[in-house]
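Entry 12.
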Amino acid sequence: MPILEVENLCKTFGRTSVLKKINLSLEQGQALSIIGSSGSGKTTLLRCLNFLETPDAGIIRVNGETLFDAADPAAQKESSIRKKRLHFGLVFQSFNLFPQYTALENVMLAEKLLAAERPDFKAKKKEILEQIEAQAADLLAQMGLSNRMKNYPHQLSGGQCQRVAIARALALHPDILCFDEPTSALDPELTGEVLRVIRELADKNTTMIIVTHEMAFARDVADHVIFMDDGTIVEQGTPLEVFENPKEERTRQFLSHYRQG
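Predicted 3D structure (tokens):
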């Protein structure tokens, strides 16, 4: 059974159809790369999966559980959506770190907020916070940031900030880790830092969805590739099928532009 199933997902903004009957599935441990030109609907798809946008139609399932069904009004209650977001970890292209918190505090924050709702939090506060801090420190160490835990975002490079953001997304043990063009705000050297971390996660069979303009990276790291255009999935398949033997003319035109560049 796929870890993620999306059926006939649609989203409009005003009169513009941004997503048009999106259907996809993702297996446990797979890395899915989503490519396409700006405005093709890639980011909106991720935001719908993370419930930052509400789809107009369609179904989203994770591990067989229906997280969203547009036909069911109860599925759109904010109280239930908060819990559903925990299935996904999202890494934004612009980091979105809290400037008033250190790297360590940024990674700890979400888990601390959730821990405060536990019935045993007051009785075990010290122990729980120590566990959260130890886990956050371990994640930052995995990102190569052991010596930067006490630094604030303005004291970090863009690549370091993005690695903090990845650690933060991992902190709540999401089923699926989502990247929204994680290197678009970085220069080539810092881009390499972040891509190395994502490759390492892929090597550990982390289930991921990666929206990216880095075609070589998308080809190398993905188990499955989707090409989107004008709110639709035009073509999908293995990296070899999509990048080396595309069937659709729109796919060929898109890839030709990147090869010429």
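Annotation: Strands lie at 4-13, 16-26, 31-35, 57-62, 65-69, 88-91, 176-180, 208-211, 224-229, 232-237. The chain is about 40% helix and 25% strand.
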